[in-house]
Amino acid sequence: MKISEELRCLFSGKVEERDGSYVVEVPEQELRLGELQADETYRLAVLPAPATNEANNTDATPEPEQAPQTPPVEAGEQRTVEIEDIGDQGDGITRVERGFVVIVPDTKQTERVTIEITDVRENVAFAEVIERVSYYE
What we know:
It holds the Pfam family TRAM. Helix content is about 5%, strand content about 30%.
């Protein structure tokens, strides 16, 4: 199945009858996250739910809502790191808290460097080398 690049959100819901109409409720979280706006018109795709007892059990306790995690680094922040790997484009890769990936050009694997974060995205950050650090320091 091909999913459109324009997909705004994806959630499970139950079709309910109300006053002669059928309604699917949109979870409040989808509006809070900013992908949807109240009183706007959207196209909906309806797919069957998996045929398992767990998916069809409406008495189940809902999962606690998890707050979206923010990246553990900020632009302008400096850190001393070890380059763990080299990516497909030849750039160094290091990981910080929670395995968050930072890409550092012009580095070699196992090299220890002080970096400055230049760009932070949801799942990855980019940094420049400020200083090459000796392992004996």
